[in-house]
Specification:
Peptidoglycan synthesis regulatory factor (PBP3), Domain 2; disordered N terminus; 28% strand; 10 helices; 17 strands; single chain; Beta-lactamase; 6-stranded antiparallel beta sheet; alpha+beta; 2 domains
Length: 387
Protein backbone atom coordinates (compact mmCIF):
# COMPACT_ATOMS: atom_id res chain seq x y z
CA UNK A 1 0.00 0.00 0.00
CA UNK A 2 1.28 3.43 -0.89
CA UNK A 3 1.83 5.65 2.13
CA UNK A 4 0.42 9.00 1.10
CA UNK A 5 2.17 12.22 2.08
CA UNK A 6 -0.05 14.52 4.09
CA UNK A 7 -2.45 16.25 1.66
CA UNK A 8 -3.24 19.89 2.13
CA UNK A 9 -5.90 22.43 1.38
CA UNK A 10 -4.50 25.32 -0.62
CA UNK A 11 -5.80 27.92 1.82
CA UNK A 12 -4.66 30.47 -0.70
CA UNK A 13 -6.53 29.29 -3.75
CA UNK A 14 -3.87 29.37 -6.46
CA UNK A 15 -5.03 29.93 -10.01
CA UNK A 16 -3.77 27.18 -12.28
CA UNK A 17 -3.13 29.22 -15.41
CA UNK A 18 -2.30 32.90 -15.64
CA UNK A 19 -3.40 34.59 -18.84
CA UNK A 20 -4.22 38.01 -20.21
CA UNK A 21 -7.87 37.80 -19.26
CA UNK A 22 -7.53 36.17 -15.84
CA UNK A 23 -4.77 36.74 -13.31
CA UNK A 24 -3.92 34.20 -10.61
CA UNK A 25 -6.36 34.50 -7.73
CA UNK A 26 -5.90 33.82 -4.04
CA UNK A 27 -8.35 33.82 -1.17
CA UNK A 28 -7.89 33.14 2.49
CA UNK A 29 -10.76 31.13 3.90
CA UNK A 30 -13.02 33.55 5.75
CA UNK A 31 -14.01 33.18 9.38
CA UNK A 32 -17.25 31.40 8.42
CA UNK A 33 -15.42 28.69 6.43
CA UNK A 34 -14.81 25.50 8.40
CA UNK A 35 -13.07 23.12 6.03
CA UNK A 36 -11.55 19.80 7.08
CA UNK A 37 -8.47 18.45 5.31
CA UNK A 38 -9.12 16.69 2.00
CA UNK A 39 -9.33 12.89 2.08
CA UNK A 40 -6.10 10.95 2.57
CA UNK A 41 -5.28 9.56 -0.87
CA UNK A 42 -2.83 6.70 -1.49
CA UNK A 43 -1.37 8.09 -4.72
CA UNK A 44 1.80 9.61 -6.07
CA UNK A 45 0.02 12.93 -6.55
CA UNK A 46 -3.37 14.56 -6.99
CA UNK A 47 -5.09 17.87 -7.58
CA UNK A 48 -8.66 19.21 -7.44
CA UNK A 49 -9.34 22.26 -9.62
CA UNK A 50 -12.32 24.33 -10.70
CA UNK A 51 -11.79 24.57 -14.48
CA UNK A 52 -13.96 27.67 -14.80
CA UNK A 53 -12.10 29.82 -12.29
CA UNK A 54 -8.77 28.02 -12.53
CA UNK A 55 -8.66 27.77 -8.74
CA UNK A 56 -6.97 24.80 -7.09
CA UNK A 57 -8.76 23.84 -3.86
CA UNK A 58 -6.54 20.91 -2.80
CA UNK A 59 -3.43 19.16 -4.01
CA UNK A 60 -0.58 16.83 -3.12
CA UNK A 61 2.66 16.59 -5.10
CA UNK A 62 0.83 18.44 -7.87
CA UNK A 63 4.07 19.80 -9.37
CA UNK A 64 6.02 16.52 -9.28
CA UNK A 65 7.00 15.07 -12.65
CA UNK A 66 5.17 11.79 -13.11
CA UNK A 67 4.34 9.38 -15.92
CA UNK A 68 0.92 10.08 -17.42
CA UNK A 69 0.36 6.69 -19.08
CA UNK A 70 -2.78 6.94 -21.27
CA UNK A 71 -3.69 10.32 -19.80
CA UNK A 72 -1.31 11.33 -22.59
CA UNK A 73 -4.28 10.85 -24.89
CA UNK A 74 -5.85 13.97 -23.39
CA UNK A 75 -3.05 15.91 -25.06
CA UNK A 76 -3.39 13.86 -28.22
CA UNK A 77 -7.11 14.56 -28.29
CA UNK A 78 -6.56 18.28 -27.67
CA UNK A 79 -4.31 18.51 -30.73
CA UNK A 80 -6.78 16.49 -32.83
CA UNK A 81 -9.71 18.65 -31.69
CA UNK A 82 -7.69 21.74 -32.59
CA UNK A 83 -7.08 20.29 -36.07
CA UNK A 84 -10.83 19.73 -36.44
CA UNK A 85 -11.48 23.32 -35.36
CA UNK A 86 -9.02 24.54 -37.98
CA UNK A 87 -10.67 22.33 -40.66
CA UNK A 88 -7.45 20.35 -41.11
CA UNK A 89 -9.48 17.23 -40.35
CA UNK A 90 -13.14 16.31 -40.80
CA UNK A 91 -15.11 13.92 -38.61
CA UNK A 92 -16.43 12.03 -41.64
CA UNK A 93 -13.01 11.93 -43.32
CA UNK A 94 -11.58 8.43 -43.78
CA UNK A 95 -7.97 7.61 -42.95
CA UNK A 96 -5.90 4.67 -44.15
CA UNK A 97 -4.45 2.72 -41.24
CA UNK A 98 -0.67 2.41 -41.46
CA UNK A 99 1.38 -0.59 -40.32
CA UNK A 100 2.88 1.64 -37.59
CA UNK A 101 -0.55 2.34 -36.14
CA UNK A 102 -1.72 -1.26 -36.48
CA UNK A 103 1.21 -2.79 -34.60
CA UNK A 104 0.94 -0.59 -31.51
CA UNK A 105 1.21 -2.42 -28.20
CA UNK A 106 -1.17 -2.15 -25.28
CA UNK A 107 -4.83 -1.15 -25.49
CA UNK A 108 -6.23 -1.08 -29.02
CA UNK A 109 -9.43 -0.54 -30.97
CA UNK A 110 -8.32 -3.34 -33.33
CA UNK A 111 -7.93 -1.60 -36.64
CA UNK A 112 -6.22 -3.46 -39.48
CA UNK A 113 -3.43 -2.20 -41.79
CA UNK A 114 -4.86 -0.67 -44.95
CA UNK A 115 -8.32 -0.34 -43.39
CA UNK A 116 -10.26 2.85 -44.13
CA UNK A 117 -11.55 4.31 -40.84
CA UNK A 118 -13.51 7.51 -40.19
CA UNK A 119 -11.83 10.16 -38.05
CA UNK A 120 -14.77 10.17 -35.64
CA UNK A 121 -14.48 6.41 -35.13
CA UNK A 122 -10.77 6.78 -34.42
CA UNK A 123 -11.54 9.50 -31.87
CA UNK A 124 -14.02 7.21 -30.16
CA UNK A 125 -11.51 4.39 -30.28
CA UNK A 126 -8.88 6.58 -28.64
CA UNK A 127 -11.14 8.26 -26.07
CA UNK A 128 -13.48 5.40 -25.08
CA UNK A 129 -11.32 2.32 -25.75
CA UNK A 130 -7.98 4.09 -25.11
CA UNK A 131 -6.72 2.62 -28.36
CA UNK A 132 -3.03 3.20 -28.97
CA UNK A 133 -3.56 2.24 -32.61
CA UNK A 134 -6.23 4.93 -32.96
CA UNK A 135 -4.00 7.54 -31.30
CA UNK A 136 -1.14 6.89 -33.71
CA UNK A 137 -3.45 6.86 -36.75
CA UNK A 138 -4.79 10.27 -35.75
CA UNK A 139 -1.30 11.57 -35.01
CA UNK A 140 -0.13 10.55 -38.49
CA UNK A 141 -3.14 12.27 -40.07
CA UNK A 142 -2.44 15.55 -38.28
CA UNK A 143 1.36 15.72 -38.48
CA UNK A 144 2.55 13.04 -40.91
CA UNK A 145 4.21 10.88 -38.27
CA UNK A 146 4.09 10.36 -34.52
CA UNK A 147 7.39 12.12 -33.84
CA UNK A 148 6.27 15.34 -35.51
CA UNK A 149 2.94 15.05 -33.72
CA UNK A 150 4.75 14.83 -30.37
CA UNK A 151 6.51 18.09 -31.17
CA UNK A 152 3.13 19.61 -31.91
CA UNK A 153 1.89 18.30 -28.56
CA UNK A 154 4.76 20.10 -26.84
CA UNK A 155 4.03 23.36 -28.64
CA UNK A 156 0.38 23.25 -27.57
CA UNK A 157 1.42 22.37 -24.02
CA UNK A 158 3.68 25.42 -23.84
CA UNK A 159 0.88 27.65 -25.17
CA UNK A 160 -1.46 26.33 -22.49
CA UNK A 161 1.09 27.04 -19.75
CA UNK A 162 1.93 23.37 -19.15
CA UNK A 163 5.60 24.14 -18.59
CA UNK A 164 6.39 21.01 -16.55
CA UNK A 165 5.32 18.57 -19.27
CA UNK A 166 7.16 16.91 -22.12
CA UNK A 167 5.63 14.51 -24.62
CA UNK A 168 7.44 11.95 -26.74
CA UNK A 169 4.54 9.97 -28.18
CA UNK A 170 0.78 10.10 -28.74
CA UNK A 171 -0.09 7.02 -26.68
CA UNK A 172 1.51 7.32 -23.25
CA UNK A 173 3.69 4.24 -23.57
CA UNK A 174 6.69 4.63 -21.22
CA UNK A 175 9.59 6.75 -22.42
CA UNK A 176 12.40 8.36 -20.44
CA UNK A 177 11.51 11.95 -21.37
CA UNK A 178 7.74 11.53 -21.40
CA UNK A 179 6.31 13.17 -18.28
CA UNK A 180 3.83 15.66 -16.88
CA UNK A 181 2.34 16.74 -13.54
CA UNK A 182 -1.06 16.58 -11.90
CA UNK A 183 -1.31 20.36 -12.20
CA UNK A 184 -0.52 20.34 -15.91
CA UNK A 185 -3.04 17.57 -16.54
CA UNK A 186 -5.74 19.53 -14.70
CA UNK A 187 -4.88 22.53 -16.85
CA UNK A 188 -5.15 20.36 -19.96
CA UNK A 189 -8.44 18.74 -18.92
CA UNK A 190 -9.85 22.20 -18.21
CA UNK A 191 -8.79 23.39 -21.66
CA UNK A 192 -10.45 20.40 -23.36
CA UNK A 193 -13.70 21.04 -21.47
CA UNK A 194 -13.62 24.78 -22.09
CA UNK A 195 -12.48 24.92 -25.71
CA UNK A 196 -14.13 21.83 -27.19
CA UNK A 197 -17.54 21.28 -25.57
CA UNK A 198 -18.83 19.62 -28.74
CA UNK A 199 -16.01 17.05 -28.57
CA UNK A 200 -15.95 16.59 -24.80
CA UNK A 201 -19.14 14.53 -25.17
CA UNK A 202 -17.06 11.54 -26.30
CA UNK A 203 -15.65 11.20 -22.79
CA UNK A 204 -19.04 10.34 -21.29
CA UNK A 205 -19.81 7.52 -23.73
CA UNK A 206 -19.99 4.18 -21.89
CA UNK A 207 -18.86 1.87 -24.70
CA UNK A 208 -17.89 1.72 -28.35
CA UNK A 209 -18.11 -1.11 -30.88
CA UNK A 210 -15.68 -1.32 -33.78
CA UNK A 211 -14.75 -4.21 -36.06
CA UNK A 212 -17.27 -6.36 -34.21
CA UNK A 213 -15.59 -5.80 -30.86
CA UNK A 214 -17.36 -3.89 -28.06
CA UNK A 215 -15.21 -2.34 -25.37
CA UNK A 216 -16.43 -0.39 -22.33
CA UNK A 217 -15.15 2.97 -21.19
CA UNK A 218 -12.51 2.27 -18.55
CA UNK A 219 -13.67 5.21 -16.41
CA UNK A 220 -15.75 3.41 -13.78
CA UNK A 221 -16.96 6.68 -12.26
CA UNK A 222 -19.29 7.12 -15.22
CA UNK A 223 -21.49 4.34 -13.85
CA UNK A 224 -20.95 5.16 -10.17
CA UNK A 225 -21.77 8.87 -10.21
CA UNK A 226 -24.33 10.48 -12.53
CA UNK A 227 -22.62 13.88 -12.17
CA UNK A 228 -19.37 12.55 -13.67
CA UNK A 229 -19.10 13.10 -17.43
CA UNK A 230 -15.43 12.30 -18.12
CA UNK A 231 -12.62 12.19 -18.64
CA UNK A 232 -9.76 9.62 -19.05
CA UNK A 233 -7.98 6.70 -17.42
CA UNK A 234 -4.37 5.60 -17.71
CA UNK A 235 -2.20 2.72 -16.61
CA UNK A 236 1.25 1.26 -17.08
CA UNK A 237 3.24 -0.80 -14.61
CA UNK A 238 5.57 2.10 -13.88
CA UNK A 239 2.93 4.85 -13.81
CA UNK A 240 0.36 2.96 -11.74
CA UNK A 241 -3.36 3.50 -12.16
CA UNK A 242 -4.30 7.07 -13.06
CA UNK A 243 -7.56 8.94 -13.60
CA UNK A 244 -8.49 12.44 -14.66
CA UNK A 245 -12.17 12.91 -13.84
CA UNK A 246 -14.67 15.72 -14.06
CA UNK A 247 -18.14 16.24 -12.63
CA UNK A 248 -20.75 18.96 -12.64
CA UNK A 249 -23.20 19.52 -9.78
CA UNK A 250 -25.66 22.41 -9.50
CA UNK A 251 -23.77 24.52 -12.03
CA UNK A 252 -20.34 23.96 -10.50
CA UNK A 253 -17.68 21.87 -12.23
CA UNK A 254 -14.58 20.28 -10.71
CA UNK A 255 -11.68 18.39 -12.25
CA UNK A 256 -9.73 15.84 -10.19
CA UNK A 257 -6.48 14.25 -11.32
CA UNK A 258 -5.15 11.25 -9.40
CA UNK A 259 -1.81 9.71 -10.43
CA UNK A 260 -0.11 6.51 -9.35
CA UNK A 261 -2.62 4.44 -7.38
CA UNK A 262 -2.53 0.66 -6.94
CA UNK A 263 -5.66 -0.47 -8.79
CA UNK A 264 -8.58 0.66 -10.96
CA UNK A 265 -10.80 0.65 -7.87
CA UNK A 266 -8.30 2.73 -5.92
CA UNK A 267 -8.14 5.46 -8.56
CA UNK A 268 -11.95 5.58 -8.72
CA UNK A 269 -12.41 5.66 -4.95
CA UNK A 270 -9.78 8.38 -4.60
CA UNK A 271 -11.27 10.50 -7.37
CA UNK A 272 -14.80 10.09 -6.01
CA UNK A 273 -13.69 11.09 -2.52
CA UNK A 274 -11.87 14.19 -3.79
CA UNK A 275 -14.80 15.30 -5.96
CA UNK A 276 -17.27 14.81 -3.11
CA UNK A 277 -15.03 16.78 -0.74
CA UNK A 278 -14.59 19.64 -3.22
CA UNK A 279 -18.29 19.98 -3.94
CA UNK A 280 -19.12 19.77 -0.23
CA UNK A 281 -16.86 22.60 0.91
CA UNK A 282 -16.54 24.98 -2.06
CA UNK A 283 -18.85 26.83 -4.42
CA UNK A 284 -18.31 28.60 -7.74
CA UNK A 285 -20.31 31.43 -9.22
CA UNK A 286 -20.11 33.21 -12.54
CA UNK A 287 -19.78 36.96 -12.07
CA UNK A 288 -19.69 38.13 -15.69
CA UNK A 289 -20.25 36.50 -19.08
CA UNK A 290 -18.57 37.06 -22.41
CA UNK A 291 -20.44 39.39 -24.74
CA UNK A 292 -22.34 41.24 -22.00
CA UNK A 293 -21.45 44.80 -21.07
CA UNK A 294 -20.11 45.26 -17.57
CA UNK A 295 -19.87 49.00 -18.12
CA UNK A 296 -20.73 51.46 -20.89
CA UNK A 297 -18.86 54.67 -21.47
CA UNK A 298 -18.30 57.40 -24.03
CA UNK A 299 -15.28 56.89 -26.27
CA UNK A 300 -13.80 60.24 -27.22
CA UNK A 301 -13.07 60.90 -30.88
CA UNK A 302 -15.57 58.21 -31.93
CA UNK A 303 -18.90 59.92 -31.30
CA UNK A 304 -20.43 56.89 -29.60
CA UNK A 305 -21.00 55.04 -26.36
CA UNK A 306 -19.36 51.62 -26.18
CA UNK A 307 -19.84 48.54 -24.05
CA UNK A 308 -16.96 46.99 -22.14
CA UNK A 309 -16.76 43.46 -20.79
CA UNK A 310 -14.61 40.39 -20.18
CA UNK A 311 -13.01 38.28 -22.89
CA UNK A 312 -13.99 35.09 -21.09
CA UNK A 313 -16.51 34.31 -18.39
CA UNK A 314 -15.28 35.39 -14.96
CA UNK A 315 -15.91 32.87 -12.18
CA UNK A 316 -14.95 32.88 -8.53
CA UNK A 317 -14.47 29.85 -6.28
CA UNK A 318 -14.77 30.33 -2.53
CA UNK A 319 -15.57 28.27 0.58
CA UNK A 320 -19.21 27.24 0.54
CA UNK A 321 -21.43 29.89 2.12
CA UNK A 322 -18.91 32.70 1.68
CA UNK A 323 -20.05 33.97 -1.72
CA UNK A 324 -22.43 36.43 -0.05
CA UNK A 325 -19.38 38.21 1.34
CA UNK A 326 -17.56 38.55 -1.99
CA UNK A 327 -17.12 42.18 -3.04
CA UNK A 328 -16.61 43.25 -6.64
CA UNK A 329 -14.88 46.42 -7.85
CA UNK A 330 -14.98 47.49 -11.49
CA UNK A 331 -12.41 50.07 -12.60
CA UNK A 332 -12.65 51.54 -16.10
CA UNK A 333 -10.03 53.91 -17.43
CA UNK A 334 -11.27 57.52 -17.67
CA UNK A 335 -11.29 59.45 -20.94
CA UNK A 336 -11.20 56.52 -23.35
CA UNK A 337 -10.09 57.61 -26.81
CA UNK A 338 -10.73 55.97 -30.19
CA UNK A 339 -9.57 53.92 -31.91
CA UNK A 340 -9.97 51.03 -29.49
CA UNK A 341 -9.18 47.41 -30.37
CA UNK A 342 -10.91 44.52 -28.63
CA UNK A 343 -7.51 43.32 -27.40
CA UNK A 344 -6.77 46.61 -25.66
CA UNK A 345 -7.01 46.53 -21.86
CA UNK A 346 -9.14 49.43 -20.64
CA UNK A 347 -9.97 48.38 -17.11
CA UNK A 348 -10.06 45.64 -14.53
CA UNK A 349 -12.51 43.72 -12.38
CA UNK A 350 -11.38 42.60 -8.94
CA UNK A 351 -13.41 40.31 -6.68
CA UNK A 352 -12.32 40.03 -3.04
CA UNK A 353 -13.22 38.01 0.03
CA UNK A 354 -12.14 39.49 3.35
CA UNK A 355 -9.88 41.87 1.46
CA UNK A 356 -8.10 39.10 -0.46
CA UNK A 357 -8.53 38.72 -4.24
CA UNK A 358 -10.50 35.68 -5.37
CA UNK A 359 -10.84 36.64 -9.04
CA UNK A 360 -9.52 39.24 -11.45
CA UNK A 361 -10.17 39.94 -15.10
CA UNK A 362 -9.34 42.66 -17.58
CA UNK A 363 -11.97 44.77 -19.36
CA UNK A 364 -12.07 45.22 -23.13
CA UNK A 365 -14.31 46.86 -25.69
CA UNK A 366 -16.98 44.39 -26.79
CA UNK A 367 -16.30 45.47 -30.37
CA UNK A 368 -13.64 47.56 -32.06
CA UNK A 369 -14.33 51.28 -31.82
CA UNK A 370 -12.97 53.23 -34.83
CA UNK A 371 -12.12 56.89 -34.76
CA UNK A 372 -14.75 59.31 -36.04
CA UNK A 373 -14.47 61.92 -38.77
CA UNK A 374 -12.19 64.94 -38.72
CA UNK A 375 -14.75 67.20 -37.03
CA UNK A 376 -15.49 64.67 -34.29
CA UNK A 377 -11.81 64.13 -33.58
CA UNK A 378 -11.14 67.87 -33.48
CA UNK A 379 -14.08 68.69 -31.20
CA UNK A 380 -13.25 65.88 -28.77
CA UNK A 381 -9.60 66.97 -28.67
CA UNK A 382 -10.85 70.27 -27.29
CA UNK A 383 -13.19 68.52 -24.84
CA UNK A 384 -10.34 66.36 -23.57
CA UNK A 385 -8.42 69.47 -22.57
CA UNK A 386 -11.17 70.18 -20.03
CA UNK A 387 -12.06 66.65 -19.09
Amino acid sequence: MLAPPRPRILATFVAAVASLWLMPSAAAAGPSALIPPPPAIAAKGFIVMDPNSGVVVAAMNEAQRLEPASLTKLMTAYVVFDALRANKLKLDQTLTISPAAWKQEGSRMFVEPGMQVRVEDLIKGMVIQSGNDAAVALAEAVAGNEQSFAELMNLHAQRLGMLASHWENATGLPSAEHYTTARDLATLASAVIREFPQDYRYYSMREFTFNGITQPNRNGLLSRDASVDGIKTGHTESAGYCLASSAQRQGMRLVAVVLGTESPRAREDASQALLNWGFSFFESRRLYSVGKAVRTAEVFKSGEQAGFGVRRDLWVTVPRGDFVRVKVMVALQPSLVAPLAVTQVVGRITATLDGQPVGQATLHALRAVPAGNFLRRGWDSVRLLWN
